[in-house]
Specification:
Number of helices: 10
Largest sheet: none
Structural class: mainly alpha
CATH architecture of the largest domain: Orthogonal Bundle
Radius of gyration: 22 Å
CATH superfamily of the largest domain: MetI-like
Strand content: under 5%
Length: 261
């Protein structure tokens, strides 16, 4: 137990050190671009951070951030649930998979900007449009990951479990789902990143307000410092959800990899 705890702490420290190094590297690249091409192309990092702290301090950014988070996470949750359930069904049923596979491929091939235009036509400029865009862009990724997980389960392993008397519940909970999760989590990580980008893109185009609306205003005003501050905020929110929700959930579900019972 103590060895596992020490190993976990060491892994956490290495992850934090790697993250800090990545942030410092990006800041250095940001500053280099600013020095080379000037503030109109890339603002000084200090000015962008000052703009971010100013918006946080006066409370003007909080409603926009909450709106974007609702659009991104609502669409991501719906798309993930929908994709995982349909993916399980398509993976377990070959005939259903032959029907759903091409349909999902077609959906995946539709550019996100096309979904934004359609959302404007269907929902107008309210928040439902941005959420719908996120759902449409994340669902195919989760579906594909789930189907891949189901179909790569080794039949010999399934037969071995049955020969030892494993019942339906054990087959699903202890064999099928752990295997599927190893394919599902990378798809969820990609879908989560796309969810924030799709939400902001939809908001910039006029569906749902949020940070995207503020970003469009900053673009119109040629305020590159505020624009970069908003980009930093979106990335920070993405990393916050990833670190506090997705990663702990993944470690809990895949605990059997390092702590077999």
């Amino acid at each position: 137990m103590e060895t596992g705890t020490v190993s976990g702490r060491r892994e956490t420290l290495w992850r934090l050190a790697g993250g800090l190094a990545a942030v410092l590297l990006l800041l250095a690249m940001w500053q280099a671009v600013h020095l080379r091409w000037g503030p109109f192309i890339m603002p000084d990092p200090r000015n962008a951070l000052a703009a971010l702290f100013r918006m946080i301090g006066d409370g003007s950014i909080a409603p926009a951030a909450a709106r974007t988070a609702l659009n991104a996470l609502g669409g991501f949750a719906a798309g993930s649930l929908f994709g995982a359930l349909l993916g399980l069904a398509a993976g377990l049923s070959r005939p259903l998979g032959r029907v759903l596979g091409p349909a999902v491929t077609i959906i995946l091939g539709v550019p996100p900007i096309a979904w934004v235009v359609m959302a404007l036509l269907w929902f107008g400029s309210d928040g439902a449009g941005a959420t719908a865009v996120v759902l449409a862009t994340t669902f195919p990724l989760v579906f594909a990951g789930t189907v891949q997980g189901v179909r790569t389960l080794d039949p010999a392993f399934v037969d071995l479990a049955r020969s030892f008397g494993a019942g339906p519940r054990t087959m699903v909970v202890s064999i099928l789902l752990p295997h599927v999760f190893s394919y599902l989590f990378p798809a969820l990580a990609s879908a989560h990143g796309i969810a924030w980008k799709a939400a902001v893109t939809a908001e910039v185009m006029g569906t749902g307000g949020g940070i995207g609306e503020r970003l469009a205003t900053a673009r119109a005003n040629l305020d590159t410092a505020e624009a970069m501050a908003l980009v930093v905020l979106v990335v920070a929110l993405l990393l916050l959800v990833d670190g506090l929700v997705l990663n702990p959930f993944r470690r809990r579900v895949e605990r059997w990899r390092t702590h077999p019972e």
